Amino acid sequence: MTTFYRLNLLPPHPSLPFFRMKLKPNIATSDAGFIFNPATGDSFAANPLAADILARTKTGQDAAAIKADILERYDVAPGQLEKDWDDLLAQLRDFNLLD
Question: Which residues neighbour 33 within 8 Å (Cβ) at sequence distance 6 or greater?
Fold first, then answer.
């Protein structure tokens, strides 16, 4: 099992389709942060904030709204949020979880 240790959050850039945070439809997630890819059998654990972000994206909430809420609720600088968002996308992409 792989654990996402960082907050891991960057906005999808409209001209770069691989930066869109859209999980593949077969990827299972739980509120507790468990992520399962049935195609490969791989499982992952996300921290609570990353799990919340994934749940919101699965319901169709856009990145801008998610990030605005995070900036309002947490003591995080916008630049750090962008870096962490980018890290999350990179990890999801590396593990072949994004559509």
Answer: 45, 46, 47, 48, 50, 51
Give per-residue pLDDT as tens, 46-76. 999 999 999 888 888 889 999 999 999 999 9
Distance CA 8, CA 23 (A): 15
Q: Cα torsion for 58, 91, 5, 37, to the nearest 10°? A: 60
* Domain edges within the chain: 2-94
Give 53's contacts (C-beta < 8 A, 6+ positions apart): 9, 21, 66, 70, 88
